[in-house]
Amino acid sequence: MNSFxxxxxxxLELLDAVLTQKIPLEEAFARDRGTAALEPRDRxxxxxxxxxxxxxxxxxxxxxxxxxxxxxxxxxxxxxxxLRTGIVQLCFLDTxxxxxxxxxxxLLQDTPLASYKxxxxxxxxxxxxxxxxxxxxxxxxxxxxxxxxxxxxxxxxGEALCRKIALAHLREAPLDLTFREGLGHKETDALAExxxxxxxxxxxxxxxxxxxxxxxxxxxxxVWWVQDAAAAIxxxxxxxxxxxxxxxxxxxxxxxxxxxxxxxxxxxxxxxxPARLARLRANASRLHLDLEAIEADALRWRPKRxxxxxxxxxxxxxxxxxxxxxxxxxxKTPDDIxxxxxxxxxxxxxxxxxxxxxxxxxxxxCSLEPQERVAQVETLLASGSSFTREPIAPEEVGGMGxxxxxxxxxxxxxxxxxxxxxxxxxxxxxxxxxR
Length: 435
Fold this sequence. Notes:
alpha/beta, N-utilizing Substance Protein B Homolog, Chain A, eight-stranded mixed sheet, Rossmann fold, 17 helices, 2 domains
């Protein structure tokens, strides 16, 4: 392929990296020099095109199968990617047909797949005429969710709630901010007004529209950081932490560590990834927060003495974050859930050993899969450990009792806060260690 800056070519190469090479979308963006060379407006177009394609991939592929007389051979796999990027422009982004069709056909020029230009042209012209009408025949939530995830959610939450979750994933997530706690009411109200941010019941602030994050009011002053409203809840479950030691395990990129340090805790932020830990340190520096970042594997690292507060935000499938990261749906597999569940069990056992007698352990994951959520906690409690569940009260989550399970664990779903733009799927349990 040619290497000159071309937004459609960049989108094609990134989509192939995500779906074929299974590279996370944000990592693919960071690696791609072609995208970096584009003008800001073109970079925004690429990001919108990819996000929309991944959110509606099931519908897009159904349109391709509808329009093709026979399946594409394996050697022409990239042609399907070209069709995907063309269809999303025609049927979801309202790109003028001539631009979407000609731009897509041109991607095959001077490539070994140039012989497919006629097919791409014919398919896209046909779908420019009938594609949007055909979408009305599809069950979009089901089609746009991998079958194994759909079945998992249907078993766990029931079909009606499964469908609401899948519908929520079709909407791009708004930007949520956590404000510094030291701000007074007047300062908070003034900053929210300047940002155009809406306060949420759980304490976060939401922006429905925004430009570059770095250009927003208050960024340089370090008075807020980006954090989904659901992700901001677990660190609040410890109560008063001022002057206390808190272990934040698997801490990067550091939103929860920032919350704890902002409330006066002595935070030991542990993560084994040097790159992610560097990001955590940079965030703490911008926010003028003092914490100790430790590069270590939480399975093996141990503090000098057990801590009164331990937070384990365990590595997980992140299926609760599909509104922000739609690529995850098409990259994770049931085998990934099994491997991650086994790791979570080991990490939770390690975190339990680091909790001081009488102390609190909060276990959290941004997953919708039951094996990664309550099953981990029930396994620990049934193992003869010295922990008991300390239920979360509705007033700790802004009076939103629907965010809690009957046993008092946090359980947010993407379909919660529907009128406000949704929320990430998150789970957290608070456990007290006996003295």
